[in-house]
Write a structure and sequence with these properties.
It is built from 2 helices and 4 strands. By secondary structure, it is α+β, with helices and mostly antiparallel strands. A 4-stranded antiparallel sheet has the order 2-3-1-4, with helices on one face. Strand 2 and strand 3 form a beta hairpin.
């Protein structure tokens, strides 16, 4: 299992948080995702053999928000 932090932009409310969490959890290989509105971030636990960081970023951007891997 791997863990990754993403920076998320464009979230304004609890509905945004739920949308981003749901988008991340739909990615095959994701075990869980926790999104923090105040810090604009998401912590994702996933199977690095089944999911790649690019797929996680794409899931968020496809949901209408900005995302990048936090350094």
């Amino acid at each position: 299992m791997a863990s990754l932090q993403l920076r998320i932009t464009g979230m304004h409310c609890g509905h945004c948080v739920a949308t981003v969490e749901q988008a991340l959890q739909k990615v095959q290989g994701v075990y869980g995702a926790s999104v923090d509105l105040e810090h604009g971030s998401a912590e994702v636990d996933y199977d690095d053999k089944r999911a790649q960081p690019d797929a996680l970023v794409s899931a968020v951007t496809d949901a209408g928000y900005g995302a990048e891997v936090a350094q």
